[in-house]
Amino acid sequence: MASRPSLRPSLRQSARALGHMVERRRHPQRFIQTDKTPWEEIHRDGIMAVRHYSLPPMASIPVGEEQVPVRRDKHRVPLILVPALGIRCWTFDLMPNRSMVRYLMARGHDVYLIDWGQPSQANRELNLDTYVNRWLPDAVDAVRRASGSERVNLLGYCMGGLLCLLYLGGHPQAPVNSLATIASPVNFHKSGPFGKVFSLAAIPAMKIHDWFQFRLEPLDSKLFHIPADLLSWGFKLTNPPGLVQSYMDLVRNIGDRDYVTEYMTMGQWFNDMVDYPGAVVREVIEKMILGNSLASGRVTIGERRVDFGHVTQDLLAFGGASDRIVSVRAAREILKVVGSREKRFEVAPGGHAGVFAGSKAPAQCWRVIADWLADRAD
Question: Keywords, A to Z (predicted)?
Answer without folding.
Answer: Hydrolase
